[in-house]
Q: What sequence folds into this?
């Protein structure tokens, strides 16, 4: 693992950790987080800016920020409601 991959993993772990906090953010703020993820993914993949980001994120096994929020927010809600009922 090289330095770029290490940085990518650390930043993405922070993005994943804070998904529930991003749920009600306006789109312009989510775009800033998406730009960070996109630039890191391109840096790891050494792809130019003109390439589409979706195949790069798929190769890194990552979802876009808004997709990740849409996936993880209901999941965390269900987990917390399950934990309160037991």
A:
């Amino acid at each position: 693992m090289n330095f770029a991959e290490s940085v990518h993993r650390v930043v993405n772990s922070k993005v994943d950790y804070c998904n529930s906090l991003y749920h009600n953010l306006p789109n312009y703020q989510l775009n800033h987080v998406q730009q960070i993820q996109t630039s890191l993914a391109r840096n790891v993949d050494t792809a130019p800016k003109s390439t589409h980001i979706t195949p790069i994120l798929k190769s890194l096994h990552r979802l876009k920020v808004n997709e990740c929020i849409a996936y993880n927010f209901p999941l965390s809600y269900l987990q917390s409601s399950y934990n309160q009922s037991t």
